[in-house]
């Protein structure tokens, strides 16, 4: 019945966040069940009940009218019934229209409310609790799940209330007319409740399998659609077609199973109605009531069948919404990875407290420049879950303006280190000094305002190129933006833009290639003029030549003197710390640091630029790097 | 939107059966519904006249049982048909993309969304809208036909009023079309906003802009609600109007029947049948309108998918592997099963197939100037190294030889190939499955190949060795490790032609030297064509081809002396080995 909802079997999200211990979130109100009605939905349900009851009354009184007419009374005696039939006939569409407006408006209000609160709840969880990879997909999952949950109001709550109200009226009226028939109707109501419960149960039992099967189909088809050439090149296309067939077969199997539940409910409803008609007919024949009333009573269960049919779909929507609610709760109930307030608020480095306390407005904080932002860690350890150590003791000295590449095998803690440096994740031990002061003692917003983060999936907002860049520093002028684009190697892109900085990007706008997106993320970091830029495998998804070109532009444009426009404008060169693989351009950095899963991380300077091969032997011990070459 | 596109049945034969079964259950349900009206009126008449109930009740119960079975079948068939049709479309779409030029394919983002969200949107179209459509086509006709027999005046009323529904729907649609369209596009923008902001949340948090957006999210959600309600008001109003129209029409039937009953010119039985059947003529038509919105996305997606499946006039017909040597049309080899066959046929002896390009011109789709113009090239046994400035079309040349692109003019003759692209494909899954994606191999063979490219140590160190899971797209491996795994896979490949795109690009000099030696070893048994901009490979090259800048002049090709036939366009020589 809903026209506001998205297509039914939506593509399911593959990525899900890694499990972390939950925190008792500001619970309470959000703990209500998905079908729990809001005031507007109750109104909608009541209106729907009137519409449904009118429909039943229409069928029943029509039967009465026809039978009464066959008795050939004076026409005038039929008039009341004719008026009633007309009234019911008009009431049904009118009340249905009213119900749909009311319940959709209520649901959309709820959606707005849930979206806002979910968005607020996501902010402290971003990015650390969204998982390491495919965060955008996790977030898309939240948006879809919210829609499903709110959909339950229109697809579950309103039909159920409507049917209950109409059913109650029918039972009451039939009981008043003829108690035995009323009891039959009551029995029918009980059977309908039981069958609905069964349908809901069957539906939710197979739902996880269905979602898994859909996710697998999506994964394989995404792979085949985006990498057809690469697959064919290595002779893997036939194998991939086999994966697709397997995924389709599994989906087919689960769909058949889940539809069996729905089929059972639909057929049981009809069996129950048929039985009710038969029993009513037997009872009604010998009742001491007029013949038109007998006809009315026999036709009543038939009219009921119209009202209960929507329950099958309602139970399906209920199962879906419950699953979605569980997923949302599992994510939003996580504890943020950083404590909101510094551990000891009064402890702050004396030499830089005044400037920072004054110049940082809440919400957005643009770094003004001026003080040094050396990055220094001692015996730093960190853990995502608290259960295992993801970053073993790490010492790091990054003087302001230097360019460091962090390499290491998978799982060695490179990204964990970067998350701690970005103040996305609280360390579990050790110290982290940012600009000489303990970063943990600085207000979170303030510490973060000194750091720009670029990850491997740069989001392009569906707005102008200018707005996409200026979000990093709203007071940046066009010259700043063009400079930043230039430093990130995007001048050709800007020239190709039909409306320059006003060209709309993102969905519905101009698409960007993978390389252009990575460069856009870097350009944002330039625009921000934040003293420290952290990059987490920004080129991981690019082909090697493009990846190298991006890193070359980064190391040339960002930190090196002479080429840095920022320095000319009075800003010191940005410190660049990038997690990468050594063959993605680590040799272009001043220093390469190796993180490994062992007691201590090692760090070594490049003996010469562009020859990373010779540095960072695995057995190197931690030591102070040389000052960056200028 | 076309309610039903017969192209679906032509392009996707697998969709025929589900659609046929849907139609059959729809017709059967319609017949059962009409029969029920007779049985029900018989029961009512029996109750009213106090006659024997057994026979009519038996009929009624039997029909309800039949309808129960049909209702179960309808649910089951609808779900099955939805999945079958969308799966069949997805498979057809992907199979199609597996045979066409890289250029002809949609750009990756659009391709992914059409193959996933697009085909999924067809599911409600097939599972809900098509059954509704079948019912709307069948049940009213059956109801009217029955009414003609039972009580023709009622049939006349229905025949006269039923066409008013679609006419009204069309009128309402036409009157509101412009504003509806405007609202829908506004609605799409508003509903996209929240997704955009949420997906960009990591960026907003980084730059301290996330809190600011809370108010925006609230405001936009509210605007979204208002805009949606504007649109829904019209949609609901039109469906309410149609329902009212249907109710009035049924009322007219009831009134005429009632009048004739009260004058005694009609019996109760047919009268009851008439008023029970009349609504059956109207509601299926109304439901088509109601399901229209849910199916609209699917119908649009279906249109886009069918457009992709249509034979493309620009791409040449796909010739059989190695059948068209020297023919006028481009002879391309690509399918992996025939690859294997070819590999077996010619891989044993020294007669490995060679590569010959004659007068090949290629331009990217939408580009007026060809990137490769009138190129002649022959590559025989051994290692042929292709060099040239960036952007000269080196990778495109390999794509052409591999059959991933078709030349605009000229011919490409090449045996089946194994092609290591710049970013070689590594599926999520075990190292073993990544290496055996093209052809099966034993673990011993795998280790031998891994040893040959010196990546066995890396694999052995992974937890699980060959069974270790690679991340998405080989995530977690460095580019060099990915490249070496790809070379190990090439080592295992039975194809006689090996194409390598920058095989040493991201290796340190030591590693590049070694990989070059591995490539040279591979070239002892096969034809190897490698594109590079580094020197290590040149030291091992049997032939060296330099692609010159191809602005206006024909591409200049420089071949080594001796083994290769002279081409009129060869100019100069560059030695190797």
UniProtKB/TrEMBL annotation, chain A:
Keywords linked to the UniProt accession: ATP-binding, Membrane, Nucleotide-binding, Transmembrane, Transmembrane helix
Amino acid composition bias (Polar residues), ranges on this chain: 601-611
Top-rank lineage group of the source organism: Bacteria
Biased composition (Low complexity): 339-351
Domain ABC transmembrane type-1: 44-284
TM regions (residue ranges): 46-67, 74-95, 169-200, 263-284
Pfam families documented for this protein: ABC_tran (PF00005)
Subcellular location: Cell membrane
Record PROSITE patterns: ABC_TM1F, ABC_TRANSPORTER_2
Biased composition (Basic and acidic residues): 612-630
Region (Disordered): 1-30, 339-372, 554-573, 597-630
Residue ranges of every copy of the ABC transporter domain listed in the record: 375-622
Membrane topology: Multi-pass membrane protein
Official protein name in the record: Thiol reductant ABC exporter subunit CydC
Organism field: Terrabacter tumescens
From TrEMBL, chain B:
Membrane protein topology class: Multi-pass membrane protein
The keyword Transmembrane appears for this protein: yes
Keyword Nucleotide-binding carried by entry: yes
InterPro entries attached to this UniProt entry: AAA+_ATPase, ABC1_TM_dom, ABC1_TM_sf, ABC_transporter-like_ATP-bd, ABC_transporter-like_CS, ABC_transptr_CydD, P-loop_NTPase, Type_1_exporter
Boundaries of every ABC transmembrane type-1 domain copy: 20-297
Keywords: ATP-binding, Membrane, Nucleotide-binding, Transmembrane, Transmembrane helix
Domain ABC transporter: 355-574
Domain of life: Bacteria
PROSITE patterns reported in the protein's UniProt record: ABC_TM1F, ABC_TRANSPORTER_1, ABC_TRANSPORTER_2
Membrane-spanning ranges: 21-47, 59-83, 129-149, 155-173, 234-259
Record localization: Cell membrane
Protein name stated in the entry: Thiol reductant ABC exporter subunit CydD
Source species: Terrabacter tumescens
